[in-house]
């Protein structure tokens, strides 16, 4: 990295210029571009389609949670305890924590089988955080909060739709979030 004051070449990441002592901190921080990477770091999770929270209490039965998952056709429910996020319970948990163990869904509570204190996203986090947490953690659903307030959750499907519709969509005059129209197949 070149010093903007004395033009001396410095090691990338150096805090001070080796020749003149100028503070170089932050001068070599990469800037987000206007393309794909820029959108993933500049936009916010609140810009994605957040699914309103499907919640059950920590004392609810697994059967109640399964019925909510089935009725609402979603892959997870958020578990609340005294109006704060206590955990998450997913379709995968039904299979691995209930069915595999041979547990009775009417007798087992969410407190016994949920993932407690799950990873969360703040509404102001960039979508890149969501993608990173999902990939590193092998997660398909992440709760979204603003402070302590539960806003809902996003899924891999939400992230992929955001990338397809908002980030990669051709700028054809359509407004953000609007689905691109497929080409006509007229002969």
Which characteristics define this entry?
elongated; 18% strand; CBS-domain; three-stranded mixed beta sheet; 7 strands
Going by CATH, the architecture of the domain at 45-167 would be Roll
Instruction: Please tally the helical runs, counting DSSP H or I stretches of 4 or more residues.
Output: 6
The fold-level CATH name of the domain at 45-167 is CBS-domain
The CATH superfamily name of the domain at 45-167 is CBS-domain
> How much of the residues is beta strand, in percent?
15-25%
**Average of pLDDT:** 85
H/E series:
HEHEEHHEEHEEH
Shape: elongated
Characterization of this structure:
- The protein is an alpha/beta fold and 187 residues long.
- It has a domain of 123 residues: CBS-domain (Roll).
- Helices cover 29% and strands 18% of the residues.
- It is built from 6 helices and 7 strands, in the order αβαββααββαββα.
- The strands form 2 sheets. The chain has a 4-stranded mixed sheet.
- A hairpin with a 2-residue loop joins β2 and β3.
- The N and C termini lie far apart (57 Å).
């Amino acid at each position: 990295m070149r010093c903007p004051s004395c033009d001396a070449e410095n090691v990338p990441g150096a805090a001070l210029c080796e020749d003149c002592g100028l503070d170089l901190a932050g001068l070599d921080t990469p800037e987000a571009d206007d393309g794909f990477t820029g959108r993933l770091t500049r936009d916010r999770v609140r810009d994605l389609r957040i699914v309103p929270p499907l919640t059950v209490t920590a004392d609810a039965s697994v059967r109640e949670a399964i019925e909510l998952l089935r009725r609402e056709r979603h892959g997870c429910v958020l578990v609340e305890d005294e109006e704060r996020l206590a955990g998450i319970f997913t379709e995968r948990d039904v299979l691995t924590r209930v069915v595999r163990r041979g547990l009775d869904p009417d007798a087992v509570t969410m407190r016994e089988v949920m993932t407690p204190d799950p990873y969360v996203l703040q509404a102001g986090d960039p979508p890149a955080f969501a993608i990173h947490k999902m990939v590193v953690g092998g997660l398909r659903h992440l709760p979204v909060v603003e402070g302590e307030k539960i806003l809902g959750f996003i899924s891999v499907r939400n992230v992929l739709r955001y990338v397809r519709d908002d980030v990669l969509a051709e700028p054809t005059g359509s407004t953000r979030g609007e689905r691109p129209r497929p080409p006509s197949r007229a002969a």
